[in-house]
Amino acid sequence: METSSRELQAAEYLEKHQIKELVSYLTSALLFFRPEKPKEYLISLLERLRIAKVTGVAFPFFMDNSNIVAMFEMMDSSGRGTISFVQYKEALKTLGLCTEDEDLQDDGHKITLDKFKEEVNKRMKEI
Predict the structure, then answer these.
(1) N or C: which end of the chain has fewer CB within 10 A?
(2) DSSP string computed for 25-47
(3) Which PANTHER family does this chain map to (predicted)?
(4) Number of neighbouring beta carbons within 10 Å of residue 40
């Protein structure tokens, strides 16, 4: 009984402070840039996040529109202008913009580049 209570408290703590999203973002940035000194890079990234939070200045994310388009085009290898919902969800996870337990609803429509860019940008702003 005590274990489940501690697990619940831990889960609530992680959710309250958005730790899963933060770790996912840090991991994605690390894999995207692959710096020579990963520990120093992570420390620098956390410091920039802290400064952005304290000053209210928006933090510059590592994905710009050209990166989003390039990612979409890699998934749309046939050049149809759409990707599947599964590809879309995996891309959001890879970017650290969607947690494993987030329940995204597949409406049955293919995801266009505009929809993909809109969703990635919206989620980056939320972080």
Answers:
(1) N
(2) HHHHHHHHH--SSHHHHHHHHHH
(3) EF-HAND CALCIUM-BINDING DOMAIN-CONTAINING PROTEIN 10
(4) 10
Diameter over CA atoms, the chain: 54
Residue 48 one-letter amino acid: R
Domain at 120, CATH number: 1.10.238
Spell out the residues 6+ positions from residue 33 whose beta carbon is closer than 8 angstroms to its own.
41, 62
Q: Where in the sequence is the domain holding 49, given as residue range(s)?
A: 1-53
Euclidean distance between CA atoms 83 and 69, whole angstroms: 12
CA distance 16 to 58: 21
Within a domain: 58: no
Place of tokens 């692959």: 34
Tens of pLDDT, residues 11-48: 999 989 888 888 888 888 888 778 899 999 899 888 87
Helices (H), the chain: 2-16, 19-33, 38-55, 65-75, 85-94, 113-126
